[in-house]
Amino acid sequence: MKGFKINGVNKKCIESLIKAGVFDEFEQTRRTLLESYEQIIDTIQASNKKAYNGQVSMFDLGENKEENDKHKYVFNVQDEYSDKVLLAMEKEMLGIYISGHPLEKLKKAILQQTNIDTMKMKETAEAIEEGNKAEYKDGQIVKYAGIITSVKKKYTKNNTIMAFVTIEDLYGQAEIIVFESTYFKAQQYLIEENVVLVTGRLSLREEEEPKIVAINIEELKEKKEKKENKLVLDIRNTDEETKKRLRGALRFFMGDRSNIKVEIIDEEGNKPCGAIFMIGNTLEQFEEILGKDRVQV
Description:
Elements: H1 11-19, H2 30-52, H3 58-61, H4 65-72, H5 83-94, H6 107-113, H7 118-129, E1 141-155, E2 161-168, E3 173-178, H8 180-186, E4 195-203, E5 211-219, E6 230-234, H9 240-253, E7 260-266, E8 269-276, H10 282-290, E9 295-296
């Protein structure tokens, strides 16, 4: 970017270039550049105009070019936008994502909750066209997830509303057909840039791109991984009487409602020891036997 000059461009063009990431080499956040560029341009233009008119101030006489440039490039420093906003700017300006993809962080959630993607839809269409066995069939219920890039609504001959929603995943785009009953249930999610999970029927027609007729559309949410419940009891250097009391407590709390695994730490290391159910002051019972510092959940 060194020595880079732009002639004959307006401020709107500079704004677009900043959003596209062209000026990232300035080592300022894009938000800083967007907050600062108009003032910087005005300062440079005023300086150039003054030089053209032959005006020199007492400050100009005592400063070299490097010092003058410092006054021109004064940034209104701001924290960077979120990744989502930065990627949306790139898509708006260039039509593609440059520095990443908004779905990259959701890749695991997408794999867990879907059974089809754009690549699989394309491969299925190609297999059918070539007369080969396809992984999916027309009318099959599928789950597909991605980011909404466009929503086009129209009214049918029966005066009912329907929508054609374009959704992009990590491999391409697919068209989702949304009829009125599904549209009204899902309209709060049918907004550009929203990431959604679609359940619907796969439509495979000759000489047409595969489509999905939506049955349900909802926001894609990451599933929280359930933490394993575990009670760890440290019995190192405990006497036989304490161990006997502990065995009695474990037997008392074992049963059909057992929902927490027990692990014993002894001189030989950590050992699993079945499971018990925890109710009320169950934990206090073990703390009373072993001491608080030897009981951990």
